[in-house]
Model the fold of this input.
Amino acid sequence: MGRKFKATSTANAIPAAALYLRVSTGRQADSDLSIPDQSRQLRSYCEAKGWSVASEFVEPGNTATDDRRPAFQAMIDAALAKPPTFSLILVHSFSRFFRDQFQFEFYARKLARNGVRIISITQELGDDPMSLMMRQIMTLFDEYQSKENAKHTLRAMKENARQGFWNGARPPIGYKIVTAEQRGAKIKKRLEIDEETAPVVRRIYRLALLGEGSTGPLGVKAIAVYLNERGITTRDGGRWGVSSVHHTLTRTSYIGEHRFNTRHFASGEFKDETDHVLMPIPAIIDRETFDAVQRLMANRSPRTMHSRYVSGSTLLGGICFCGLCGGAMTLRTGKNGRYRYYTCCSYARTGPKGCGGLTLRMDKVDAAVIDYLENRFLSKDRLTDLMSNILDQRDLWIQRRHDHLGSLRKRATEAEAKISRLYAAIEDGVMDASDPQLKTRLADLKSARDTALKETERVARAIERLGPTVTPALLEQFAKATREMLRNEDGTYRNHLIRAVAQRVEIRSRNELNISGCRVELIRTLATSNGSEAAALVVPGRAPEWRALLDSNQRPLA
Done:
């Protein structure tokens, strides 16, 4: 009896409906007429059916491929209440509710269990099995159409990036968005270097490569502390953290290669590198500096070189690799330790199937490397030839610093002149000193002036610290002092000096070794030396305060 009475009561009640209005992007919400038109049509439909409108939920700029929508979740919470405040959810089409067939059916059945139906005013269906099947076909087609649209949109955006145009979102620090050209109604935009924030990026790379004063290269945490202590903020005015510094140091955008389409939108997972699109933009950092920073960061990782190699007795430990498979060459002994060998770790671990393997006597390999460094690499002619191009770049860098210094001084002078004009206007009675906008403007100008003056002092100190120009005579002094210091008093070699001038030794065969290094690190070594003493070489090492946790030991760029 209770059931019959309840059914009769429901039949006589006026159904209440919730209206759900959605557009896909914020731009549509701001400039389109879709939401007002949806609201008008849904209300007219309710009026024709004799239904009341209980609520209206508006989603201005959210995709229907997932349920991460605030208004949608608020509507679902209201519909699942006991009892619900409405019994119908009205949409213009099923695609407004969901463009994922599985998720649509999941929520439709969940709502149905609480007595709430979903109705499309442009796709009217009943409750019979045929109507249910038609709804499933429609939502499946909506999902397919959504994926096709996304595919074509992504293809257009990738081509846009290949042509050097910006697709949207916030630019990396150091860049600003500018209008490039107009094609029909569309305005194409590009990235340009922002001279207000680009110096911060250059300073971060300089700190990572050279450090400040006599500190030597700084790690990501030390750089974050350095910036925060000096009041250098992020673009949003916040404090620098380890992750933001690491991201800046590993982002290829700063060498003119901005990567687009690197992650999956839904999951956030990285895509395969073949899917990435390199967008050409102006470079803030030269490639040699970028590569040198990546090597320094990689050398700090225990995956690359354990601390025992820095202070251990193995001369080439941590920098010697097999030329066949790329694996590290490890120490092996024979005859109860009387003989020591470099052996391919892949061969030692997995046998001939892993790698053909090379095993060479350690004393012969060490002697060959030392002989090359002493007699060929550290010759004046060889060093002059290696350094010619990078010395030209150094001169160019100095010129850019002087130009930047002039620009900063001009900026400080202009801000000071504007402040003086404002004070003069107050004295002449043209402006009211109590005007809050005037106070804000004065504060902004003083901040701009003080920032420019501080940056002027820093750039001037950086130019002074460069010291004398690296001349052939200085190169000869450096080579002579380094040769003398390669050997200890007992005749053994100093492995930390080897690593300062050579970062990788590849054993390609029993008669062929390949020794490689970085010219940027070589100029850094020369710049931090006293000209006649090689003891000033900056040697990669392990500081006691080095942290092994992920938040302070970000993985270097592969």
Observations:
- The radius of gyration is 34 Å.
- The chain has four domains: 2-155, 175-181+189-299, 307-380+473-538, 393-468.
- Residues 1-11, 302-311, 528-558 have pLDDT under 50 and may be disordered.
